[in-house]
Every structure is written in C-alpha cells, then in structure tokens.
Amino acid sequence: MLLIEVSKRMSYQIRSEDTLARMGGDEFVLLLPDLGFSADDVAIKAENIAEKIKQALLKPYDLSGNDFSVTASLGVGIFPDDGQDSEELLRHSDIAMYQSKKRGRNCITFYSESMQQTINNREMMKSLLSKAIQTEQLETWFQVKVDQQGKIVGAEVLARWHDLQQGWISPDSFIPLAEQNGLIISLGQWLIRHITQTIARWDQHNLFQQLKHLSINVSPEQFYEPELIDSLIIMGNLFKQYSLQLIIEITEGVLLHNTEDVIQSMALLKANDIMVSIDDFGTGYSSMSYLKRLEPGEIKIDRSFISNIENDKDNQVIVESILSMAEHFGMTVVAEGVETEQERAFLQQKNCQLYQGYLYSRPLPEDDFIVFLQKFRNH
Q: Which ranges of the chain have pLDDT less than 50?
C-alpha cells in the first residue's frame, strides 16, 4: 500500500515525457530527458524536480486508518558526464543515493562533485536571499517612463539586492532563484509592504505632480496566490489617495495555466482601477484570443525588438504589428530598452506612446530617483 501511494505521489510531480520505474524493493528510478543544454542548467532543473518529489513523499500516509511517515534518499547522475551508457549511469546514480543515506537521509546528492557544488551554491544563495527578505536587506529601485513629449509620467519599481559578502547580485540571478524555490511569494509581500511605506514619504516631496503611475512586476507564481489580489487592491486604494495609478506587470506565462482564474483575477483588478500590463510582449506565448478575453490596459514591447530597430527590418515589422494591434484593442504600448535617439525617433514616428530605457535614465535607488525627478522638474 505504501509503495502504491509513493508511486502515485512521484507520478504527480513529473512531466509526461519522464519515465518512472520501480527497480525492486523500495527503490525507484526516474529518467528525466531534455532538461537543457548546459550541465548547470540540467543540474538545477533535476534538483528542482527531486526536491518536489522529496517534499511530496514527506507528507503523512494514511494506510488502513494508520498514519505513517517516510523519508527518501535521492541520488542523481547526469548523462554523459556520469555515465556513457545506462548501466554506468544507473550505477553512479545508485552510489549518489547511498551518499545521501550517509549524509543522514532525506537529502539529494549528485554523483558529480562539480554538480553537487552547483547545487550547494544555489542552496547557499537561497538561504542568503531568504535572510535578506526577512532582514530588509533588499532595496527598491525605480526606472522612469516618459511620454512622446519626453515628460516623466511614471516609473517601474525594481527589487535590488546587495549582500555584504557577495556584493550586488543581479536580479537575473535572484529573481529566477526566488521563483524556483517559493521565495517569490515572500519577496512580493516585501515589495508591496515597502512600496506602501515609500508612498507616504514621497508625498512630502510633491512627486505626484509628475508621477501618474507606478508599476510592479508580479510573477506567475505570485499571481496564483489568492491573498495577492486582496493585497494589490488594498495597495491600489492607497495609490488612489495620491491620484496615483497602480499597474501590475505580468508575463505571458501567466496566461498558460488556470486561464479562467486569471481572467477573473484580472477583471477584479480592473474593477478596482488597477491596470494590468503584459511584460516582455512578443517573447512568450502571445495570443490574440488571450488579449481579447483578458483586455490588459498596457503591453510592453520587449527590448530585444527595440535594439537597433532603425536598421532591423524584421523587428520593424514586429513592432509595427504590435502597435497596430494595441491601437485596435485600445491598449497603451511601452517600448522597453530604448537606448538611442534613433530608436526613440523610429518609435515616435510609429506613434508608440511610452518609453523606458537608458536614453532617459537607468534604474535608480530611491534617494537618487527623488533627486532625478526634482532636477527634471526644475529644468
């Protein structure tokens, strides 16, 4: 009965292309194909799946009315580094599993020392990030958005992390780490709480004469959290007191799962005067039917389409199509990553409404951002 329940729980955690087998006794083998092209990427994805399996198996079992608890020791081998054929790969994975048992059981061990070091480094970074969120080590930075006349109309809020030992850690590193390890929820809560406190300070500097909106990023993992929508509505109501609009930026990945729930959540936000923006538009799973049903108020053209656009005919066609579609749906368009006057001139000629990028300002810490706005207003 226990083995059957274990099999079910493991099956729920894997993809359709994966293969799960019971080799005998209480030993199972899982084959995970197509995890990536780099060894580090494969190791990280394998570790994520192994961790989900481990956590699933830890939950109590009800067997004929009796509660049981078990732990699992997992060993991981990666082809071709840890074995050139199935026999060698299985043997080395088995050795890694027994290393997990020696380490005290209920853990994950890689046969390759270098891969294990990669995972250890990620665990260390995860621990540091968790501590940083709890101890308020993160910072909020801001990057302006301007209109066609070059007037500042809003800003995007960005999380930045400076660790005392590691220095500045790129958001390209810690945001995916937070998403993969469940920390993105607490990170989002920190950001909402911090912005709420920031707004009160900004009123003293008369910044709301210039800023009409602030946008924050919400990951798919956050968007599916029931409590998030309530927090955003409370935050949006606070913004209204300062004649400020809250914009929520989500990626197209949010649209792939629980579509009906997403539609309801977006309708609820819209009913409370919170605008939804589709970030990095064109790089994910764009769909005309999604846009028609979801009716976002804004889309942001990904910077990959903006760079050197005056000389790239293909990107010109893509951007022109997005602008035409957005006009049809009545949506505002923001061009991300505008760095040159030539890029701005092309976009303005095509009637893009808003611009964001180094041509206007890099992301700035709060104090520098306030000074930047004040200088901009004075000149």
A: none
Q: Where are the domains of the chain?
A: 2-111, 127-378
Q: Cα(161)–Cα(129) distance, rounded to whole angstroms? A: 8
**pLDDT given for residue 295 in this prediction:** 77
Q: What is the pLDDT of residue 256?
A: 64
Model confidence pLDDT, tens digit, residues 296-345: 899 999 898 998 898 999 999 999 999 998 898 899 999 999 999 999 99
Does domain 2-111 bear CATH number 3.30.70.270?
A: yes
The pLDDT value given to residue 290:
67
127-378: in CATH 3.20.20.450: yes
How is residue 252 written in tokens?
């197209």
Q: Cβ–Cβ contacts within 10 Å for residue 242, how many?
A: 15
Per residue in 265-297, is it b (16+ CB within 10 Å) or e — as a string? Answer: bbeebeebebbbbbbbbbebeeeeebbeebebb
Token output for 217: 């990023």
Q: Residue 352: which of 312, 313, 321 has the closest Cα? A: 321
Round to whole Å and give the CA distance between 177 and 374: 36
